[in-house]
Design a protein that fits this description.
This protein is of the alpha+beta class and 406 residues long. Helix content is 38%, strand content 22%. The strands form three sheets. Strands 9, 10, 11, 12, 13 and 14 form a six-stranded antiparallel beta sheet that branches. Strands 5-6-1-7-8 form a five-stranded mixed beta sheet, sandwiched between helices. It has a three-stranded mixed beta sheet with strand order 3-2-4. The two termini are 37 Å apart.
Length: 406
């Protein structure tokens, strides 16, 4: 806990239209033009779009067919998982080398806690120099804002875009937020926005002047959180990023087996459930690890870095591929396990290049059923008959290495 005399200095960094910007590095002819990244067929989905495309009303997760109709002249690019993940890793390394504490909140967003650095360097100067270093080393545009907390910094970055920077002096948080649309406050999604607009609330200033009890009556606990954010109050810490954070599960068989079909069914079911957990916690993984323990208790693992994703079919294909590479002894197996690591916050977006509108809707429908009726409510045919009680899961995020547990 910091002494009250020490004021926090929090920076939010955000790469502008990240996927589009990477594509423009490869093809400068795309600069200044409406660009859509995502599934190229009419059944595809927009994963990202340039500011020029947004001017036509296009947004991420929109069906590509509708986006084409809104902007026929747009250039459509399928997307390159490998390149986006590569640049995300490069920028992470730069941030890691430059600041004492940082949080990688998504593939293209970071928070940094520079508290105390103003005494020696000047926090705004540190953030500006870091931004310049990222631009110099990658060629990618990036925006940032500096304030006393994560909420105000994130909103500030949105106001600084594109490719800009902003400082909100300590004590000016409410003044800065007051004239903005309530839509700018984190946690105010479409439904909440329309509810507040129907109440005649348009600007943040109105929420600031409302009694917190009224917001709680209308929106429950979220109303209190939104009221605090609107007033520039946010004590949430910058959570130090660790690529070893992971979620995992494993299955120990009652009887050692060599039945490959059954082993893969178990693997598919475990992968499916972990992928659902990723999406439920709004996370993406960049590393898959498979574990096999034979009847002689010798244990082996194999892992593979992948582009950030939370999509079942991508993760299942990689899990089966790794299993086939690892299972070479043809001995009886006592246990198999799977782990997803190098986690960051994210959404479906990174998986939309390989996903159709129907698949996105299917995942959303399946996840809704699981949330309502349990994780085993719906399964792929390949994992049928395998239920969660068969597993020995490591719940939540672990900082250790589950593969070393005996």
């Amino acid at each position: 806990m910091l002494p009250q005399s020490i004021k926090r200095q929090i920076v939010h960094l955000d790469l502008d239209t990240f996927f589009v910007s990477v594509e423009r590095l490869k093809n400068s002819a795309l600069v200044g033009k409406p660009v859509l990244v995502g599934g190229s067929s009419d059944r595809g989905v927009v994963a990202a779009c340039s500011y020029e495309a947004r001017a036509f009303g296009i947004h991420s997760a929109m069906p590509m067919k509708l986006a084409r109709q809104l902007c026929p002249q747009a250039t459509i690019i399928r997307g390159d998982h490998e390149q986006y993940s590569h640049y995300s890793d490069v920028i992470t390394d730069i941030v890691k080398e430059s600041v004492p504490v940082y949080e990688k909140s998504s593939i293209d967003e970071f928070y940094m806690d520079l508290t105390g650095m103003d005494t020696f360097f000047g926090c705004y100067k540190v953030a500006t120099e870091l931004r310049n270093k990222i631009i110099k080393n990658t060629g990618l545009p990036i925006s940032f804002a500096l304030s006393g907390n994560k909420t105000v910094s994130k909103v500030g970055t949105g106001e600084a875009k594109p490719n800009g920077y902003k400082e909100i002096p300590l004590g000016d948080e409410k003044i800065f937020l007051a004239p903005l649309s309530i839509r700018k406050i984190p946690m105010v999604g479409e439904k909440t926005y329309h509810l507040l607009r129907n109440m005649g609330i348009e600007k943040v200033k109105t929420v600031q002047e409302m009694p917190v009890q009224l917001m709680e009556q209308v929106l429950g606990e979220n109303g209190t959180v939104i009221w605090k954010k609107a007033n520039g109050i946010d004590n949430s810490p910058v959570e130090a990023y660790s690529e070893r954070k992971s979620i995992s599960t494993e299955c120990t068989f009652d009887k050692d087996t060599i039945d490959v079909a059954h082993l893969k069914s178990v693997l598919i079911s475990m992968t499916e459930k972990l992928a659902f957990q990723l999406r439920d916690e709004q996370k993406l993984t960049a590393c898959v690890t498979i574990k096999i323990r034979y009847s002689d208790f010798n244990t082996y693992t194999i892992q593979s870095r992948i582009p950030y994703t939370a999509v079942d079919h991508v993760l299942i294909d990689r899990a089966k591929e790794l299993f086939d590479k690892l299972y070479q002894k043809r001995m009886l197996i006592r246990l198999i396990g799977i782990r997803f690591s190098h986690l960051v916050h994210g959404s479906y977006q990174i998986g939309l290049f390989d996903t159709t509108v129907e698949q996105v809707q299917l995942y959303q429908a399946m996840d809704k059923l699981r949330k309502r009726f349990g994780k085993d409510a719906i399964q792929r045919a390949g994992g049928m008959g395998i239920t969660l009680r068969d597993f020995n899961p490591f719940n939540g995020i672990r900082n250790g290495d589950p593969s070393k547990k005996k």
